[in-house]
Amino acid sequence: MARIVKKRSVKAGLPPGSLVYVGEQRTEQAHITVIEYGEGVFRERALDDLTECSPCRDASTVTWIDVDLVHQVDLVARIGECFGLHPLVVEDILNTDQRPKMEDFGEYFYVVFRALTCNGERWAMESEQISLILGANYVLSFQEKSGAVFAKVRERIRAGKGRIDRSGADYLAYTLLDTVVDNYFIVLERLGDRIEALEDALVTNPASSTLRVIHALKRDLIFLRRSVWPLREVLSGLQREDSSLVRESTRVYLRDVYDHTIHAIDTLETFRDMISGMLDIYLSSMSNRLNEVMKVLTIIATIFIPLTFIAGVYGMNFRHMPELEWRWGYPAVMLFMAAVSGFMVVCFKRKKWF
Q1: pLDDT in tens, 202-213
Q2: Domains in the chain: how many in total?
């Protein structure tokens, strides 16, 4: 289950631009991959010496620098110096609890959003923050974790097929955004399967474990909404910005991924309504079950009230009670009690009380 709010108290009282990593503590070494491509050009290598970053800023080819694991503050700070990033941008990259947003710094765009994935066959939603820097001919991506979120994009670039090989850095940034949004639908499909299974359990045999699942799903939906909803503002801003960094031909594709985001938001809102309805159904089912139990107990108690009265009368043991010395007194009382019980049962059934 993804954490809704990360601890940001470590930054309390620090001046703006203070570089402090906010996120899950890790010990792995960060990995930097550089991919340069263009018409008939493709180079991919691991970057070990950060002094090699500076030439990438003014290269004639499109350069993609992908940084896995941003917990190394010094590493991110040095990359920011190589590309002239604003200190507040570097600070936001290290703070992995950012709300999705887009900022225009003239020479580059800073875009931050969240990538969502499902872990294996079981439901386990994982989330990470991804920061993008879009320049004239370069894209910097900073991933919170080491994963394969952009593996298919790398394969497309290596294959040299499709539009991405003939387009600029803005199209690469669009492709990375589109990949993340496509993964949203995978998560939503898995979430939809869980909701359908929960509906069946809710109808057939609701239990206390069902309530725990409902609350877990509500928590996941809250986190999903926080991750997906602001992204439409980011994409809308990229379309509207009057900047040479995003060409008109790429804006068409950004509108398409914007539509996909709206679709994901609509699906998410539908799921939220369904979960809210399920909680009401669960409470109603438990209330009806309790009412059924109380009805049975009430019927049993009501049947035994006159029997208890009869038994109480003949249990007083007064001397002048003719029935006490009558030979058929005991069988007669038993038959009378049985007749009273049968009469009450027939009356309850006629009134359809059970």
Answers
A1: 777 777 777 888
A2: 2
